[in-house]
Amino acid sequence: EFNDFDNAQFQRVPFMVHMPGLKGGVNHTYGGEIDVLPTLLNLLGVKNNDTIQFGSDLLAANRNQTVVFRNGDYVAPDYTKVGSTYYDTKTGKELTKMTKAQKLRVLALSEHVTKELSLSDKVITGDLLRFYTPTGFEATDKTKLSYKVSDAKAQLKADKTKTSVIQKNNGKSTMNLYQTDAPELK
């Protein structure tokens, strides 16, 4: 029977990187979209000490692998929280009677999630990025932005530049061009 735990697990999406010199393989790391930038910067050898970011490099050995959802739910390698229910992430079994060690771990995870969401809220609701002015920073003119679907469609229609890989390949798939040495994908 499909339940809330299953739904939380379905939030997983593969993240694939292909670049020269990178050995293929599969890394079963828990992470979110927030971790993409730090991971790519590390792979490209770009130092990012001057940037503000909440994510962490997905390939770092000591990273916190808790995936935080906006509503306070989370998925971690050991426990998953959905609403007020806790699950063993590996087995999917609901934790009805937790041991003291489990309670302490769940408490630590919950405190981490609360802190991450609180910091995120402060940046968003407090507009704290207005104080972030590194060298070369140019503020966006908000009066020139539009989030209307009709405006976006009109802009896409007017722009004749081919930007997607499929467009650049005349509407044909490029899957046959992809090569990897990852044994899991052979």
From TrEMBL:
Domain of life: Bacteria
Entry-linked InterPro entries: Alkaline_phosphatase_core_sf, OpgB/LTA_synthase_biosynth
SUPFAM superfamilies: Alkaline phosphatase-like
Designated name of the protein: LabP
Originating species: Latilactobacillus sakei
Gene it is expressed from: labP
